[in-house]
Amino acid sequence: PQGPEEAKAFINAFLKHSMPKMKDEAIQDVLTRKAVVLERYSKKKAKQKRKKPKGFTAKQRRELRLFEIKPEQQRYTLFLPLHELWKQYIRDLCHGLKPDAQPYMVQGKLLKADLHGAIVTVTKSRCPSYVGITGIILQEFKHVFKIITKDDKLKVVPKLHNVFSLEIDGFISYIYGSKFQLRASERSAKKFKLKGTIDL
């Protein structure tokens, strides 16, 4: 058993070791209190910042031709299953496209829907050579649609000054490309005004 002096010496040595940054006078001051809080000094590890992987720039995507469809893949029949998937997606989105569905509701859903796989037709255009082009939308960009036609030709049709029609289950919707110049991802958040226009 230790006597009071040995115990006091042990406590002083222990506190000095446990709180190396405190002076002897400060330790004695701590001992006069009823409670002693031992501080722990640990070496702080430098936090390593995680670097987010950077994607390709637009220039790199063009150089790598990431969005180009190879000539051997430009076949209409190859994308018919995509069209069937798109029809099922629209039916689910519009709750079955029932005969009593409100046209403005369906129109509003179609304006925000993903159009990859939809069959569209150019019904009006300032450029007569675009009128009548019909096919499946393979890619949608901000300013153009890439459409594969039944004769396996890939057409790049600008949205500006063109009117497109798409039909599903007897419901025909018209899209004014001049008012539709958005990326597919941006379009879902945009509020469209459902009113007629004669502008091309």
Automatic annotation (TrEMBL):
| Gene3D superfamilies attached to this UniProt entry | Ribonuclease P/MRP, subunit p29 (2.30.30.210)
Task: Kindly list the places in or outside the cell where this protein is found, as annotated in its UniProt entry.
Answer: Nucleus, Nucleolus
Keyword match Phosphoprotein: yes
The highest taxon in the source lineage is Eukaryota
Q: Which Pfam families match?
A: RNase_P-MRP_p29 (PF01868)
The protein's matches in SUPFAM superfamilies, at most eight in alphabetical order, are given as: Rof/RNase P subunit-like
Query: Which UniProt keywords are present, listed alphabetically?
Result: Nucleus, Phosphoprotein, tRNA processing
Work out whether the entry's keyword set contains Protease. no
BP term (GO), one: rRNA processing
Q: Which InterPro entries match?
A: RNase_P/MRP_Rpp29-subunit (IPR016848), RNase_P/MRP_Rpp29_sf (IPR036980), Rof/RNase_P-like (IPR023534), Rpp29/RNP1 (IPR002730)
User: What's one GO-annotated cellular component?
Assistant: nucleolus
GO molecular function terms noted in the UniProt entry: ribonuclease P RNA binding
Q: What does this protein do?
A: Component of ribonuclease P, a ribonucleoprotein complex that generates mature tRNA molecules by cleaving their 5'-ends.
The entry assigns this protein to a family as follows: Belongs to the eukaryotic/archaeal RNase P protein component 1 family.
Alphabetical list of PANTHER family matching this protein: RIBONUCLEASE P PROTEIN SUBUNIT P29 (PTHR13348:SF0), RIBONUCLEASE P SUBUNIT P29 (PTHR13348)
* Assembly notes: Component of nuclear RNase P and RNase MRP ribonucleoproteins. RNase P consists of a catalytic RNA moiety and 10 different protein chains; POP1, POP4, POP5, POP7, RPP14, RPP21, RPP25, RPP30, RPP38 and RPP40. Within the RNase P complex, POP1, POP7 and RPP25 form the 'finger' subcomplex, POP5, RPP14, RPP40 and homodimeric RPP30 form the 'palm' subcomplex, and RPP21, POP4 and RPP38 form the 'wrist' subcomplex. All subunits of the RNase P complex interact with the catalytic RNA. Several subunits of RNase P are also part of the RNase MRP complex.
Name used for this protein in its record: Ribonuclease P protein subunit p29
Protein species of origin: Eubucco bourcierii (red-headed barbet)
Cite the source lineage.
Eukaryota, Metazoa, Chordata, Craniata, Vertebrata
Tell me the name of the encoding gene.
Pop4
